[in-house]
Write a structure and sequence with these properties.
Layout: E1 2-6, H1 12-21, E2 25-29, E3 40-43, H2 48-57, H3 61-69, E4 74-77, H4 79-84, E5 85-88, E6 99-104, E7 115-121, E8 125-132, E9 137-141, E10 146-151, E11 154-160, E12 163-166, H5 177-189
Parallel strand pairs: 1-2, 1-3, 3-4, 4-12, 5-6
Antiparallel strand pairs: 6-9, 7-8, 10-11, 11-12
Bound molecules: glutamine (GLN).
Glutamine is lined by residues 45-48, 78-79, 82, 105-106, 133-135.
Family: Belongs to the glutaminase PdxT/SNO family.
Catalytic activity: aldehydo-D-ribose 5-phosphate + D-glyceraldehyde 3-phosphate + L-glutamine = pyridoxal 5'-phosphate + L-glutamate + phosphate + 3 H2O + H(+); L-glutamine + H2O = L-glutamate + NH4(+)
Protein name: Pyridoxal 5'-phosphate synthase subunit PdxT
Length: 190
């Protein structure tokens, strides 16, 4: 089993380190060839506008979208969630646009928008350490989307078939339960 981590920008090394600690083979995705034999993909946090441009400029857009649409398990954290969303609140920008959610960027404010808390995620556990950094949250979800976590009335984790998203950054904590959950998602899909 091999999990690719989109490695253009943002917090990708932290994901790789946690996946390695779980004995998972990883590959840094920087071009089309890197996508060839992956069983799962992480799209990390960072800055979604920049990441979206890099995906197109490095000619990864079509292959990434096709793989996700044909069932590749994918996990988007923070900016990664924005990259997967079909709709961005009050913004016409479209990135991979595969998951039926509307997200609000910088939803907690730009300057003071970073905080952490502990809350539960359905199917994963209770008291999970959640770090939010200029994070988005999910405004609304389509019929096929399962809401997995709500913090202060805002949706911060969800799943639609092979697509899993979190507003927060589990790779910046010592709690590896969310990574284990995604690894299981990938395993059951092989
Ligand atoms: N930590 C993050 O990934 C922040 C996301 C960033 N605010 C964006 O809109 O792209």
């Amino acid at each position: 089993m091999k999990i690719g981590v989109l490695a253009m920008q943002g917090a990708y090394e932290e994901h790789i380190n946690i996946l390695k600690s779980l004995n998972v083979d990883t590959v840094e995705i920087r071009n089309k060839e890197d996508l060839e034999d992956i069983d799962g993909l992480v799209i990390p946090g960072g800055e979604s506008t920049t990441m979206g441009k890099l995906i197109r400029n490095l000619d990864l857009y079509n292959d990434l979208k096709a793989k996700i649409e044909s069932g590749l398990p994918v996990w988007g954290t923070c900016a990664g969630m924005i990259i997967l969303a079909k709709s961005i609140y009050e913004d016409d920008t479209k990135h991979l646009s595969t998951m039926d959610i509307e997200v609000r960027r910088n939803a907690y404010g730009r300057q003071l928008g970073s905080f952490h808390t502990k809350s539960d995620i359905k199917g994963i556990g209770d008291d999970i350490h959640m770090v939010f950094i200029r994070a988005p949250y999910i405004e609304s979800v389509g019929d096929k989307v399962e809401v997995l976590s709500v913090v202060d009335k805002n949706i911060v984790a969800a799943k639609e078939n092979n697509m899993f998203v979190t507003s927060f950054h589990p790779e910046l904590t010592d709690d590896n339960r969310v990574h284990k959950y995604f690894v299981d998602m990938v395993k059951t899909n092989i």
